[in-house]
Amino acid sequence: xxxxxxxxxxxxxxxxGQSEGRSGSLCAGGRMSTSRAPDASSQSADLGAQxxxxxxxxxxxxxxxxxxxxxxxxxxPLDCPIEGLKDHEGTENYVTPLGTSSIVxxxxxxxGADLFLEHHVTGLYRRGASWEVERKAxxxxxxxxxxxxxxxxxxxxxxxxxxxLLSVQQRQQLEGVVxxxxxxxxxxxxxxxVVKVPWGxxxxxxxxxxxxxxxxxxxxxxxxxxxxxSLVVHTGVPFGLEHLERxxxxxxxxxxxxxxxxxxxLPQPISIKCQKWRYSQVQTSVPDCPGHMTxxxxxxxxxxxxxxxxxxxxxxxxxxxxxxxxxKAKFA
Length: 332
Prior knowledge:
Residues 96-321 form the Amine oxidase domain. The protein has eleven helices and 21 strands.
């Protein structure tokens, strides 16, 4: 987002398109996306990233980002119990009252870039001093520079000229990136429902299926009169890997049975959403965490994202700043 903001300041035209995301869906934000109930009677739910942990070092180096998000109310300190949370000395944990997607929307709105959702990018073709970006439906478009931030396996699947431009070392580094996989459920309840647990979230240790459960609206401090609570469930990584190629509709009942074992007496939800995160958190990143990888200088083609740093908010910021330096050097 910072790169796009800088481009806008220099009078450049900047667009944000979307390949298939980590879940296979087409939405801005990747794991920082917020799901909503079919009607407005229930709170929203974050099916991906759950909270933001700022180490003392990142709290200093990324102070301007945290300060901005806190000042506009998009972040607030976590103030409810999370059972099993492995806290580290000096680390501050934050939640997003409006959902994690609010952070993505905030930076996109600040960027001045044109946002195009449901533009499934399928190929990149070098056309002289420009890039032709091909998408699944609709006309191709031409750009002076392209920045790719989708999961690395999807970068490698792009058709066109990208593959032949990768050096042997670059290809090896990209192919070495490893992601965890998991399923997530959001349960939306009616306004009169009560989820009776003493915590806002809990890391589960006695289940081969479920690793994490959160009363998401409580955890985010988003409970409001007239709106029902929301519950989020994450499976463990081994379970996600074992069932990865199954349809999420087939996996959902398995997760629900285990959830009711863990939380007997859970109210009947009015709606359930199941999400398959094929590319969840980065387990093995590009060596030395460079922040970005420049595939070609002219026309500029850069890859970035948490695969080039580490898989949390600060890793994404670090990669964005790294790519910004490349774009400034090229176009400033």
